């Protein structure tokens, strides 16, 4: 049982001092450069508390050099680390979560090993760092500080203890996962995925306000315009105050305001008393701006260029998507590889809209890796051959 596993309480060499001056950073870089081998890397953010997803603490560990806790908010640019780390592999748990905030600080890996993705390729149902540490190292990790406000200064000692432990376990976990990938003949799959992750960037949305939760239920274009203007006002206020936008108004409150029919900023204050008078005034100006737009200026009900026209009618397309998804789900179970790792669902869905297509070429152009094409293409071709053509 998990509760019977020993709890990893303190780092082997104690909690290192926080590196927060240029001089200490230079010393740390020299120590890291003098060592060699993979580098465990982690980052702590203040998601849901501060604006954006920037790293407030960056943790590094390399055998022969030790563990380093970098106050990235104070230090700012960390690009001088790159030459010191050279071409060696960065070991990160969930690259898509941490790489963007590391890149924002100037850090660029030459090679990657994602311990979360490795666990998923092995078919593990639990792949959080704590679960992976339990399964590979037989120890429990305390995770109570994962959602802490890492913008806090000074950082509490118990938080630093937690941060140091996270990178201390990554290197031995990496070695065990690497061996299991070799034993299961999935190391080639992992190598292709890790190489692909080097170019990872978060998805860009031309109209990010359309991600507002609850927007899909609004049918009035005028109310959609109000959501857009209110979202943009909230985003500006959040950026200026360095707060997560939901700290000002949650999405459901933004939707409610867009549909409220308010006549003044006082009406807004009466409903949302935690707002300042200045914030209420800015929200009302945004609301009023949307209310005065001409019909031709109103946004559409769906995102521009969201999907290209298909030769199949909606009922046919729905049937094709369902058939391809079912085939991929069956293959996923057979291989014990999660369906979204085996092939991105968005690619499967877009393929369903195509008629008389070269499946291998289509998958490659959509960004599928060779191992994904090799395993998925035969199943997709067979399924498509059994479906009515346009």
How would you characterize the overall build of this protein?
With 390 residues, this protein is an alpha/beta fold. The chain folds into 3 domains: 2-197, Nucleotidyltransferase, domain 5; 208-297, DNA polymerase, domain 1 (Orthogonal Bundle); 314-385, Orthogonal Bundle (DNA polymerase, domain 1). The chain is built from 18 helices and 8 strands. The protein has helices spanning 22-34, 72-75, 81-85, 95-104, 115-121, 129-137, 157-168, 170-183, 187-197, 221-241, 251-258, 265-271, 277-291, 314-335, 339-342, 345-352, 359-365, 370-385; strands spanning 7-8, 18-19, 39-44, 57-62, 66-70, 89-92, 111-114, 140-141. A 6-stranded mixed beta sheet has the order 2-5-4-3-6-7. Strand 6, helix 4 (95-104) and strand 7 form a beta-alpha-beta unit. Helix 6 (129-137) packs across helix 8 (170-183), helix 14 packs antiparallel against helix 16 (345-352) and helix 17 packs across helix 18. The longest helix is centred in the C-terminal third of the chain and has 22 residues, at 314-335. It is flat and about 65 Å long. Keywords: Hydrolase. Residues 16-182 form the 3'-5' exonuclease domain.
Offer a concise description of the structure.
By secondary structure, the chain is of the alpha/beta class. The chain is 49% helix and 8% strand.
Query: Strand-residue fraction?
Result: 5-15%
Query: Structural class of the helices, strands and pairings?
Result: alpha/beta
Distance between the termini: 55 Å
In angstroms, what is the radius of gyration? Answer: 25 Å
Largest sheet: 6 strands, mixed
CATH level-1 class of the largest domain: Alpha Beta
Task: Compute the number of helices.
Answer: 18
CATH superfamily of the largest domain: Ribonuclease H-like superfamily/Ribonuclease H
CATH architecture type of the largest domain: 2-Layer Sandwich
CATH topology of the largest domain, which one?
Nucleotidyltransferase, domain 5
For the secondary structure, the number of strands is: 8
Into how many domains do the coordinates divide? 3
Strand order in the largest sheet: 2-5-4-3-6-7
What is the averaged pLDDT score? 95
Helix-strand string: EEHEEEHHEHEHHEHHHHHHHHHHHH
Share of helix among residues?
40-55%
Catalogue the unreliable spans. none
Organism: Brevibacterium iodinum ATCC 49514
Keywords: Hydrolase
Protein name: Ribonuclease D
InterPro entries: 3'-5'_exonuclease_dom, Exo_C, HRDC-like_sf, HRDC_dom, HRDC_dom_sf, RNase_D-like, RNaseH-like_sf, RNaseH_sf
